[in-house]
Amino acid sequence: MFREAFRILGRSLWELWDNIFVLVVANLLWSLALVPAMAALSFIGGWPGIGITIVTLLFLGGPVTLALYELTLNANRRERLELYIFFQSFRSNYWRGFKVGLINVIFLVLAFVNLTFYSSLYASNSPLGIAVILWGYVVFIWFTLQFHMWPLGVRMEKFSMWGLLRNSLLATFKYPILSLILGLVVGVFFLLSGLLSFLPIVIFGMSYHALVGNKALNLVLEKEQVRYRNQPAAESESLFQITETAPLPPKPEPEPKPFTTRNAPQGVRRRGSVETPGEGSSSKL
After folding, report:
1. Residues 212, 148: contact at Cβ < 8 Å?
2. Rounded mean pLDDT of 191-214?
3. Contacts of residue 271, Cβ cutoff 8 Å, sequence gap at least 6
């Protein structure tokens, strides 16, 4: 898994460069959707600002993030990226993105409350303050969970919040080396982006995260399919199984019009025309 993890990171970087225009535009749209949440947290503050931030993340952040993952899914399927897929997914999978965002918002609230509480205990040298370190590990595990949760939110045929959470945890803990390497590398990238006012995340960071997440889930699904085929039928029900949804159909390309030559000399057939029986001079002298 060590080699596969770095292959995923490198291949995702190449696909980001190969589709740089579409992915940067989509990433900027994602960033714009989060501006109201960040503005409420920065300028309003307090409980009203936190409340507006949570509502904005639910109704905008979740659906727009899921749309970004569906757009990058086509890059993993070696299909041409079209920006209309981003808007189409935002409309068709809006409530699915809302539910995935709801799971993350609930965890963020719990993590914020617990980290704040146990940090105060740690500062006062209380033995219970050691729990702040445990919550730090939990936050990192949840971050690695995102590599599987959002792609699963796109691909699950029968969506359920419990099934999404269960399958994401299985994918993370059944392949810990893959999850650890991806989490460390992308996490360090996000932290270093803070030195540049988070501009890399605003411009292309989430698109790269989505590419990595889709590729990681592809690898997990391939491994599980091989394991499923090698297991007896009696044991197959307990395995990690996910059925992908059908890919979005590509936009139909217009048929090329035949090229015609105007004012062609007599006896010269125009390009694109179909010769009918009896057309032209076919008589022998």
Report:
1. no
2. 93
3. 258, 259, 260, 261
Q: Which residues of 203-216 are buried (b: 16+ CB within 10 A; e: fewer)?
A: bbbbbbbbbbbbbb
Query: Residue 130: what pLDDT?
Result: 86
Compute CA 87 distance to the chain's CA centroid, rounded to the nearest angstrom. 14
**Of 239, 247, 208, nearest in space to 223 by CA:** 239
| Residue 26 to residues 29, 76, 119, 139, 239, Cα–Cα distance (Å) | 5, 16, 37, 27, 35
pLDDT tens digits, 83-134: 999 999 999 999 999 999 999 999 999 999 999 888 888 888 888 778 888 9
Tokens in use for 52? 């507006």
Whether the predicted model's global pTM rises above the 0.85 cut: no
pLDDT in tens, 231-252: 665 454 555 555 544 444 444 4
- What one-letter code names the amino acid at 217? L
The set of residues, in sequence order, having a beta carbon less than 8 Å from that of 16 and lying 6+ positions away, is: 23, 204, 207, 208, 211
Question: What are the helix (H) ranges across the chain?
Answer: 2-18, 20-39, 46-56, 62-76, 84-92, 94-123, 131-155, 161-174, 176-193, 199-200, 206-230
Evaluated on CA atoms 30, 70, 59, 194, the torsion sign reads: negative
Residue 42: predicted pLDDT: 84
Burial (CB count <10 Å: 0-12, 13-18, 19+), residue 97 = buried
